[in-house]
Amino acid sequence: MKDKIRNFIAETTFSEPGTIQDGTLIFDEGIFDSMGLLGLINYLETEFGVVTDDTELQEENFGSVERIATFVERKVAMAG
Asked: pLDDT by residue (tens digit) across 26-50?
């Protein structure tokens, strides 16, 4: 799952996937911005069936690949 998320971020930001580590703070490092976040939310819904509430749009859920994967895993577990 982390590789899929990392590859999506890399493709949409024209970054090398190897430069984005699990703990890389994608917003603090300037890799992603708010428009990128909207694309990511759409991707997570399409790829993993995860629907994100506005209240969940926080750095603790979307700040890094690790945080995004944890968020998706939690949402999938809650839905199942």
From this structure: 999 999 998 999 999 999 999 999 9
Domain map (residue ranges) of the chain: 2-79
Q: Tens digits of per-residue pLDDT, 2-27?
A: 999 999 999 999 999 899 999 999 99
Q: For residue 73, what is the enclosing H or E element?
A: helix 65-79
38 contact partners, CB below 8 Å, separation of at least 6: none
| pTM (global) more than 0.90 | yes
Please tell me the CATH superfamily of domain 2-79, with its number. Answer: ACP-like (1.10.1200.10)
Among 80, 16, 2, smallest CA distance to 44 is for 2
